[in-house]
Amino acid sequence: MRLRHLPLRLIVAALLVFATVHARAAEVDEVTLAKQFGIGSLTFIVMEQQKLYEKALAAANVGHPVKVRWVKFTGGAAMNDAILSGDLSFALAGVGPLATMWAKTRDNLKVMGVCAANSMPMLLNTRDPNVKTIADFSSRNKIALPGVKVSIQAILLEMAAAQAFGDDQYAKLDPLTTTLSHADGMAELLSPNSPIDSHFTSPPYSYQELEHPGIHTVLNSYKILGGPGTLNTVYATTRFRAENPKVYAAFLTAFREATDFINHDKRAAARLYLQGSNDKSLTEDELVKMLENPDIRYTMVPEGTMKVVSFMHKHGRIKVEPKAWSDMFFPEVHDLPGN
To answer: Which domain holds residue 57?
Structure first.
């Protein structure tokens, strides 16, 4: 039967059904990914410089061109705001921001981890010669970190305080902390007249600081956790993954390729980092030396996450505690040996 012989109401109904199905089938035409400062964002920088996501999207046959847009944030809190507003497709931040979003959005957006990005030791460095352990910190000291109470460094500092002073004293050092970007925190630490004399940060900043006379390490995150710990994770909303299956799958393809690239050729990865970050504070050889440090690992496997998340739940930072690390991550990585 020809369409012109159908009643008008049936034609309208058919067109509405077609439009609805087509709208549901259409995936996004732009994807926004967030980087941070430092080599914790190296995987994303390799993806950007090599256009790996664009290549994976082209191979995924999405049905239309998809623009890849990169933005930069100084910490996880700002990324979480962007995820909540719908302005960000994939965030790259620590376990703390991921756990916060996972617990906070379980009844609506359902933010979940896509994968881990890397495991790196975070170091609390100081220029105060009298501070040998965290028990030596006093009101005269100021500790810079990426986000007071919410960053992974802030949570690890509380875990260390609980271990050193007793569980009920976990927040003892919180009044000494202040929020600064990694780069600004390093600048303040290295300035002898700055009131900020300590900095809890990640590579490359932590290692760069130790190159300066009078700077020493008070705390190593791997010792707090009893082993390697994830520095950065990637996360997104359940709705984004459900509505954009090809775009999401293409991301995982590109991310795996970038991870393999870094592990296969660290010098080439270092070169891409310096090009993409415009970081003038490091030479290629210095960065390669950092990347060859066995403590710095580029892996999609979440490590040490449950210790962090259990601590956050115990002290009221999140209202729900996952039973396993996989509860916070999408199924595509459940076969990995995470912890």
So the answer is: 9-119+230-333
Other Cβ atoms closer than 10 A to 16: 10
7 has a pLDDT exceeding 80? no
Residue ranges of the alpha helices (H) in 106-244? 152-165, 182-189, 205-210, 221-225, 238-243
Percent of the chain with pLDDT over 70: 92
Q: How many residues are listed for the chain in this entry?
A: 339
**How confident is the model over 197-231, as pLDDT tens digits?**
999 999 999 999 999 999 999 999 999 999 999 99
As a whole number of Å, the CA-based R_g of the chain is: 22
Answer for the pair 86, 105: CB distance below 8 angstroms, yes or no. no
CATH number at residue 238: 3.40.190.10
Q: Are residues 289 and 195 in the same domain?
A: no
Specify the DSSP element, H or E, that contains 309. helix 305-314
Q: In a 10 Å sphere around its CB, with 0-12 CB exposed, 13-18 middle and 19+ buried, how is residue 163 labelled?
A: middle
Burial of 175 (0-12, 13-18, 19+ CB in 10 A): exposed
Per-residue b/e over 30-60, b at no fewer than 16 CB within 10 Å?
A: ebbbbbbbbbbbbbbbbbbbbebbbebbeeb
Confidence of residue 9 (pLDDT cuts 50, 70, 90): low
**What is the rounded CA–CA span in Å between residue 140 and residue 4?**
84
Residue 93 near residue 76, CB atoms below 8 Å: yes
Which pLDDT score, from 0 to 100, does residue 146 have?
A: 87
240 lies in the same domain as 97:
yes
Pair of tokens at residue 182: 């990694």
In this structure, the dihedral spanned by the alpha carbons of residues 248, 250, 251 and 256, taken in order and rounded to 10 degrees, is: 130
Question: 0.70 exceeded by the pTM?
Answer: yes
Pairwise CA distance, residues 267 & 164, whole Å: 40
Residue 106 to residue 210: CA distance in whole angstroms? 41
Distances from the Cα of 78 to the Cα of 34, 72, 267, angstroms: 10, 10, 31
- Among candidate residues 186, 181, 179, 159, the one with its CA nearest the CA of residue 170: 159
